[in-house]
Structures are given as structure tokens and as C-alpha cells.
Amino acid sequence: MYIRSDENGNINLISIYDIEGCQLYNGALPTDFYETVGLGKYLFIDGQIVAAIEWEFPAIPEIIP
Question: What is the pLDDT of residues 42-64, one digit of tens each?
Fold first, then answer.
């Protein structure tokens, strides 16, 4: 898979295609990667996927009182 991240390691694109600015990643993925990557749990730094320090699952507001 190809991954693009910003200068802070925040992942902003995951693709099966080689898109400009992406790096190839062939390593193992954390078991909850796809479920939590959009929430900022994982970063892509120096070609590796790493867990964000002090990441907490965001609070989900109650929609119907």
C-alpha cells in the first residue's frame, strides 16, 4: 500500500496506487489500523507506522437526548 503524510506524520492518504507524494509501505498493520487511522491514532514517520503518543479515543457526543 502507499501512504502519504504531512510533515508531522499525520496520514492523509492511503492508496493501492502509486500517487505523487506517497511512500510504499509493505509492513504489518496494527489490528485496528483501518478503524482508527482517520481518528489520528497512527502516524507515518520515516517509513514506519507508529502510534501517536497520548492518543485517546475522541468523545462521541450524544445526538438524541
Answer: 999 999 999 999 999 888 888 88
